[in-house]
TrEMBL record:
Protein name: 2,3-diaminopropionate biosynthesis protein SbnA
Alphabetical keyword list: Pyridoxal phosphate, Transferase
InterPro entries referenced in this protein's UniProt entry, alphabetically: Cys_Synth/Cystath_Beta-Synth (IPR050214), SbnA (IPR023927), TrpB-like_PALP (IPR001926), TrpB-like_PALP_sf (IPR036052)
Domain of life: Bacteria
Cofactor(s) required for function per UniProt: pyridoxal 5'-phosphate
One Pfam entry name: PALP
Residue span(s) of domain Tryptophan synthase beta chain-like PALP: 24-290
PANTHER family associated with the record: CYSTATHIONINE BETA-SYNTHASE
Entry keyword annotation includes Iron: no
Organism annotation: Kibdelosporangium philippinense
Complex formation: Homodimer.
Length: 329
């Protein structure tokens, strides 16, 4: 029976959903949403805060500041509340209302950037705002998840070993790419142990992470408008780009079977099924990482008006049909 005194001490590493009965291929979905921050970002937040404390950067009078599309902001809000720090999250207008409310409930301040930067994305504008805050007052401490090695180390030390222990014969691992902390931590772990695991990154169409053309993206968590400094592409075997239409369809297909996951999980599952179909990979042991759960997306991914306004009237006419690239299966 786990008994805890601080919220960051609980995190489920052992739950997988076998998607074989919902999609055509066997795929084990590692569920990272079962902790008090509700997402995989708890591990990155805990690691980066611990390192900043060890290094003496974070002191009792410090004000933590971070740019986040939401989930890291929630995790840092929770840890800051637990440890007695102040926290200010810089996010943008794509951040879900419920995610913003969660941060505020933990006592954090939230600044919302509404004007995109010159690339048409929000990330550069968010980071410029963080830099301006740090220049204005030396109590601000920016952990900088985009460049902080604690971000990938959290997954090197926790996420990847948990997967390796559960699947000693793992063939392929699908990881969504935001800051690429999860991707790089897992990829480094398997590469250094000489495990023959194929690492497949899943990104959104419109993201520039792997050199694509920038385009509009509405689903937070995955994709970037500025290439992430943590990324080392030599660790990545394949990259799948997923259209947000396919993300929405995969999310709804899972929901119709009783599994309510977040938007980025739909992206990862859609990209993974596409890759497995292209590689005729029925015999492979495949794992994908589901970064969070779906309740934070009730006003977006799971709201008919939102999805129809953005992606067209017929987006959900046939959720049983999974679009794979330009084909349907
Ligand atoms: C919902 C969701 N999915 C995926 C990711 C991507 O994880 P990473 O930043 O480790 O690449 C994030 C990161 O914030 C997220 O919030």
């Amino acid at each position: 029976m786990p008994v805890i005194s601080v919220p960051q001490d609980f995190n489920s590493e052992e739950l997988y959903v076998d998607l074989r009965s919902i999609f055509e291929h066997s795929l084990f979905l590692k569920c990272e949403g079962f902790n008090f921050a509700g997402s995989i970002k708890l591990k990155a937040a805990a690691e980066m805060v611990a390192a900043a404390e060890r290094d003496g950067i974070l002191r009792p009078q410090s004000v933590l500041v971070e740019s986040s599309s939401g989930n890291l902001g929630v995790a840092l809000s929770m840890i800051a509340a637990s440890k007695g720090y102040q926290f200010l999250c810089v996010t943008d207008s794509r951040c879900n209302l419920s995610t913003r409310r969660l941060m505020e409930a933990f006592g954090s301040q939230v600044h919302i950037i509404t004007e995109p930067d010159a690339n048409g994305g929000f990330l550069g504008a968010r980071i410029a705002h963080v830099r301006a805050l740090c220049a204005s007052d030396n109590r601000y401490v920016w952990l900088n998840q985009y460049a902080n090695p604690g971000n990938w180390k959290a997954h090197y030390h926790r996420t990847a070993p948990a997967i390796a222990a559960a699947f000693p014969l793992l063939d392929v691992l699908f990881v969504g790419a935001g800051t690429t902390g999860t991707l790089m931590g897992c990829a480094r772990y398997f590469r250094e142990r000489h495990r023959p695991v194929r690492i497949v990154a899943v990104d959104s169409v419109g993201s520039v992470t792997f050199g694509g053309t920038p385009g509009p993206r509405m689903i937070p968590g995955l994709g970037t408008s500025v290439r992430p400094p943590l990324l080392d592409e030599s660790y990545v075997d394949d990259v799948m780009h997923v259209d947000e239409v396919d993300t929405i369809r995969a999310c709804h297909r899972l929901a119709r079977k009783g599994f309510l996951f977040g938007g980025s999980t739909g992206t990862v599952v859609s990209g993974a099924m596409d890759w497995l179909a292209q590689h005729n990979a029925h015999e492979l042991t495949a794992v994908a990482i589901a970064p969070d759960l779906g309740e934070r997306y009730l006003d977006t991914v799971y709201q008919t008006n939102w999805t129809q306004d953005l992606y067209g009237e017929d987006i959900l006419d046939d959720t049983d049909r999974l679009t794979v690239g330009s084909r349907s299966i």
